[in-house]
Every structure is written in C-alpha cells, then in structure tokens.
Amino acid sequence: MNILTLDAGTMGLKCALFTPSGEVLARSVANYGVNTPFPGWAEQPVEWIFGACIRAIRAILEAVPAPDVAVI
C-alpha cells in the first residue's frame, strides 16, 4: 500500500506518491493564484485549492498506473 501526500502552499499544491519505505513513485504540482481584491488583502477561494488537489492527484494517477493507495 502506498502513501499519497498533499501539501497546500501559498501559490500551489504539491502531491507525491511514496512507497511504505519512502521511495518516491511520482510527484506533481498544481498552481493557483492569490486574489487581492483590496490593498493589504489576500485570499484564495477553497475551490482553487480543491481544484488543484484534483489536478495534482490526476497527474499522479496518470504517471503511476493503478497505484495501491492506503493513506492520504
């Protein structure tokens, strides 16, 4: 069983798939922006981050055929 990780940062989401021993099987990054509606304001709608999760996981699934994922 493999381990899928998600790391939401300021400008993008990193995703990686590891074996139980820590070997990297695949990794991907899905970028998103920052909305600044007013000076000093910064926001990132949850839809942007969720969409990045879907894109990043999809890239992993395309790179590793039928990965056996136990933990996210």
Break the fold down into its secondary structure elements and pairings:
Blueprint: E1 2-8, E2 12-18, E3 24-31, H1 46-63, E4 69-71
Parallel strand pairs: 1-4
Antiparallel strand pairs: 1-2, 2-3
Question: Which of globular, elongated, flat, extended, rod-shaped describes the shape?
Answer: elongated
Quick one: biggest sheet?
4 strands, mixed
Strand order of the largest sheet: 3-2-1-4
SSE succession:
EEEHE
Cα-based radius of gyration, to the nearest Å: 14 Å
**SS strand fraction:** 25-35%
Enumerate how many helices there are, as a single number: 1
- Which secondary-structure class do the elements indicate? alpha+beta
Sum up the structure in keywords.
single chain, 4 strands, alpha+beta, 72 residues, elongated, 1 helix
Describe this structure as you would to a colleague:
The protein has one helix at 46-63, and strands at residues 2-8, 12-18, 24-31, 69-71. It is elongated, with a radius of gyration of 14 Å. With 72 residues, the chain is of the alpha+beta class.
